[in-house]
């Protein structure tokens, strides 16, 4: 392929990638909880509050420093914050071009590079996270650079290549909490599969140097894995369907395992006893094409393929086993470090296919289905609504004509989660919460703390969930709301529907059924109970005026008469 043509095609691919990531980047629903939390930590006063906030969070620190610098330069509007993810998303298109070029340095190299760049540009998964104020777009970029220098070390283990690999491996560990798993297996596989004659001591020495550089993270990682609050699966139980959704998320524009996958993969194929043609066409067909190309890539029997397969398998199985034992939630984004390897191998399979006509057909089908879905579908990655967006709540309360003397009870999130979108500072002055951090102090009858609740909640709270008269919760509601409200004052109870599924009767049946009680996440039980009890007591003491539903939120309105 002519070099000038390659540059022209790459520029066109980059332009396409930018346009897809810019489209609908301003989300009217605002940031959802994880985005908001990321922003709020980066927004803390530097250095004292900022370092304390970073240390107390479950994610590695690098992204907060990156976002802090971005906000210093470009402020913190929602669009600006989302562009902070778009930029590494676009750069990743070029780094994947380089990865493929390093893999196939001779025949098919230019075509393979363009294929890798194009797949990255139109990846629904990467487009979604290029518009999300989270760590994953930057994580993918760093992981792709790690892959690039890993391939360079594989081909030429010079001092420059090994030191740059070490540098970006350390950055990956500091960017993503479980990035160390990928870096560990990547380093071991490199040593194991590099040609003996090419091995040099500097690679091993650099790995040791990288370990030393990562030592400051050891206390953070130990505290994280030792604390049940973060790795308890208290909100998303494991299901084998997540494995299938992992591949459809990565290879098709249909995203299902972003925050929590549907319970059954088969139900996505068979919708109400009939075939779900849309899911089959737009999720399964592109995925089957890419899986077939992966198989094709491995047919050349190159030693580098064994290295890549080892890294993928070891990392994937480690996270899978951790998920099976309840130590981590199995979500597609948590294995984003492996995505550059998969994109590379799909591009290799594509470019090395001998049947030119068949190659063109597969490329056309994959591209048309992916781009058509992204452009047309209301559930495409650029149109997926953040139903938990916290601007939705503020807008709804304003639509309901909230006044400065009205009171708000937030369930699941604290009031601070909504302050960014509040136009008047005193509008939610009388706000309190029964949230995922303070619920033990409000609903448990005796002295309790969050650590103990997360660790042994199913045992400690079983009787609480059956309690019809929770004196501690009643005191909280009377003390903060009912006793302080005057005639005409209103109470707004804000509920997150995604975590409060069960009414009082259903909750009681679950608690009395040992198998069901063990299966249902603790979060859903806590949220359902606090919602049910708060609504019941409010109806007993106030006049119920109706509710307002928006996205994943339900707002109940009560008035003192």
Name the quaternary structure: single chain
In which range does the helix fraction lie? 55-70%
Rg measurement, Å: 26 Å
Shape: elongated
| DSSP strand tally | 7
Structural class: alpha/beta
Would you mind describing this structure in some detail?
- The protein is 60% helix and 7% strand.
- It contains 26 helices and seven strands.
- Strands 4-3-5-7-6 form a five-stranded mixed sheet, sandwiched between helices. The chain has a two-stranded antiparallel ribbon with strand order 1-2.
- Helix 5 (78-103) runs parallel beside helix 8 (136-155) and helix 8 runs antiparallel to helix 9.
What is this structure's SSE topology?
Blueprint (H helix, E strand, L loop, with lengths): L2 H20 L10 H10 L5 H8 L6 H13 L3 H26 L5 H14 L1 H6 L6 H20 L3 H17 L3 H15 L7 H14 L3 H9 L14 H11 L14 H4 E2 L2 E2 L1 H22 L4 H22 L14 H13 L4 H21 L14 H9 L7 E6 L17 E6 L3 H5 L6 H11 L1 H4 L5 H10 L9 E7 L7 H9 L1 H6 L2 H20 L1 E8 L2 E7 L2
Parallel strand pairs: 3-4, 3-5
Antiparallel strand pairs: 1-2, 5-7, 6-7
Helix pairs in contact: 1-5, 1-6, 2-4, 5-6, 5-8, 5-17, 6-17, 8-9, 9-11, 10-16, 13-15, 15-17, 15-18
């Amino acid at each position: 392929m002519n070099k000038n043509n390659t540059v022209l095609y790459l520029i066109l691919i980059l332009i396409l990638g930018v346009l897809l990531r810019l489209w609908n980047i301003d989300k009217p629903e605002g940031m959802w909880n994880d985005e908001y939390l990321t922003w709020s930590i980066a927004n803390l006063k530097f250095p004292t509050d900022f370092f304390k906030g970073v240390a107390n969070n479950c994610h590695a620190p690098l992204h907060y420093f990156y976002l802090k610098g971005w906000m210093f330069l470009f402020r913190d509007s929602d669009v600006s914050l989302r562009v902070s993810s778009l930029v590494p998303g676009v750069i990743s298109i070029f780094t994947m071009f380089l990865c493929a070029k390093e893999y196939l340095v001779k025949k098919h190299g230019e075509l393979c590079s363009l294929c890798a760049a194009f797949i990255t540009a139109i990846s629904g998964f990467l487009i979604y996270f290029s518009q999300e104020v989270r760590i994953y777009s930057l994580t993918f970029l760093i992981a792709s650079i790690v892959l690039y220098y890993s391939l360079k070390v594989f081909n030429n283990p010079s001092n420059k290549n090994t030191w740059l690999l070490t540098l970006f491996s350390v950055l990956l560990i500091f960017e993503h909490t479980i990035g160390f798993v990928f870096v560990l297996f990547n380093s071991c596989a490199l040593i194991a599969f590099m040609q003996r004659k090419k091995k040099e001591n500097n690679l091993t020495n650099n790995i040791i140097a990288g370990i030393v550089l990562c030592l400051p993270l050891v206390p953070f990682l130990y505290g994280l894995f030792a604390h049940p609050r973060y790795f308890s699966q208290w909100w998303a139980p494991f299901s084998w369907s997540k494995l299938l959704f992992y591949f459809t998320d990565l290879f098709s524009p249909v995203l299902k395992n972003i925050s929590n996958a549907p319970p059954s993969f088969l139900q996505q194929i068979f919708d109400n006893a009939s075939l779900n043609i849309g899911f089959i066409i737009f999720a399964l067909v592109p995925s089957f094409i890419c899986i077939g190309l992966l198989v094709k890539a491995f047919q050349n029997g190159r030693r580098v393929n064994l290295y890549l397969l080892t890294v993928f398998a070891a990392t994937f199985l480690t996270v899978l086993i951790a998920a099976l034992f309840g130590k981590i939630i199995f979500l597609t984004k948590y294995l984003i470090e492996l995505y550059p390897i998969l994109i590379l191998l799909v591009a290799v399979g594509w470019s090395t296919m001998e049947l030119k006509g068949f190659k063109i057909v597969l490329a056309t089908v994959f591209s048309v289905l992916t781009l058509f879905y992204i452009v047309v579908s209301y559930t495409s990655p650029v149109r997926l609504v953040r139903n938990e967006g916290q601007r939705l709540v503020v807008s709804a309360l304003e639509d309901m004509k909230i006044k400065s003397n009205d009171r708000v009870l937030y369930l699941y999130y604290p009031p601070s989660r909504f302050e960014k979108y509040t136009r008047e500072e005193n509008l939610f002055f009388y706000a309190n919460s029964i949230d995922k951090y303070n619920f033990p102090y409000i609903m448990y009858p005796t002295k309790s703390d969050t650590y103990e609740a997360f660790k042994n909640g199913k045992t400690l709270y079983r009787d609480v969930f059956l309690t019809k008269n929770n004196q501690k919760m009643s005191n909280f509601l009377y003390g903060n709301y009912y006793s302080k409200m005057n005639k005409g004052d209103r109470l707004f109870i804000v509920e997150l529907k995604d975590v409060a599924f069960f009414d009082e009767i259903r909750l009681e049946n679950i608690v009395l059924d040992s198998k069901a009680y063990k299966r249902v996440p603790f979060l859903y039980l806590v949220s359902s109970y606090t919602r049910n009890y708060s609504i019941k007591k409010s109806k007993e003491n106030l006049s119920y005026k109706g509710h307002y539903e928006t996205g994943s939120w339900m707002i109940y309105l009560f008035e003192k008469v």
